[in-house]
Amino acid sequence: MASKRRQECGSADGKRKKKSCPAEAAQFGSAVEDEQVKRAVKEAWSRRSPYSEGDLELDCFPFPHCIIKNFLSSEVFVENLQKELLGLDFHEKSNDLYKFKQSDDLKKRTEPHIAGLREGLFGRFRSWLGEVLGVELEPTVDISCARYEHTDVLLCHDDELEGRRVAFILYLVPPWQSSDGGTLDLYSINSNFQPQSIVKSLVPSWNTLVLFEVSPVSFHQVSEVLSKDKCRLSLSGWFHGPSLERPPRHVEAAVPRSPHLPRDETVLLEWVNPAYLDISYQEQIQEEFEDSSEIQLKDFLKVILSFSASLDSLPPCVKACWELLHSEAFFLLLSNFTGLRLHYLSTGSSTDSAANASKEKEPSIPVCCGEVRRWSHGSYTLLHDGEAAQAEYALDLVLPFGCTDWQSEFGGLTCYVANEEDEELLTIYPEENSLALVYRDKETLKFVKHINHKSTSAGSSPCRGFYDFSFVYYE
Fold this sequence. Notes:
- The protein is an alpha+beta fold.
- Helices cover 25% and strands 27% of the residues.
């Protein structure tokens, strides 16, 4: 009879209703079960000093974290847990911070080994951890499963969110080396409590639990997975409890804005493709721009820019192009392209009636700010909340060079999203000498997607990348 029940559990034969198996109890390894080890870990954690005994290692640099090998005592349990997890539905997760596949919340999953681990983690192990920290942890269940495969990544962040006190990751990976990528990288901080550099990298290993205290300085990342055939499978989540005190949040200085430089149309004749100086073509561009609030102008410059490997000293042509984008003549040209009031001679109307009404009340001097940026493997930008507060409306300009044959799978795409939303509204692909213009309001933010290692294997250069001018203009 027992054998028959095991066969029926979790399956349907067409006549019987599908049943849930009872949870398989998760048994922890000796490092967790040993009372003497628990007392020693508690003392070391309170003193912020390192401790190691058997399968357990505690280190407090750059912030307190603990590694427990052979976390679960039964190899059969771990193998069955892995099988159940691989049978789940996974969803692609992608935004400015990460790219990987994640399961739904495992709070209510009934698979016997998933349920057993969940009960053990948020039951007996939560009590163990609470004693070690000297903190009463809440019974809140917060756990999911993640699959990281080739080029997947989770960029630098601190995990801070209301109620999170300790983060944990249980690895269920095949034999793994640092050359496979996917390491858990821990960051040191600077005097402003901001991430500075990677000072420790933890290589995932089978049946190993890593946990760390969530704090304003717990900056970490999952480095890009480089292996093409291995799956970095893990269970992760948080134990909830009272949050640690946060120091005042550091606010980075904004890029300085400046009005146009006094340069006449001669600079346009020298640099810009003559087709874009034709008045009738400018009217056509403006009509298209006013319909969609964005446009890409191919072969924009007639001068081919050449960048050196280092931007420590800019070539003269780059400095000259910088002056072009700052020039009074270029402000007027942008006005003609977009209908925005970026020059006093502009007769166009704003692309947004509300924006136009606000300009009528309070005339202002058009200004811009800009950067020359070098993009290569590992480069990215994140969404920045401060952007939303900088201006009601803005015109973005991006002009890339050195990206001939660049492929979208490399990354480096500029993505626009609504504030607090993940869905992409617009994607700008790097295209050689193609001027991209995007008009956005303060609730539309942008980021550049992480450039993965595929970019280094394409083409002849081992450090392949590209450059761009990135400017923002304000009416």
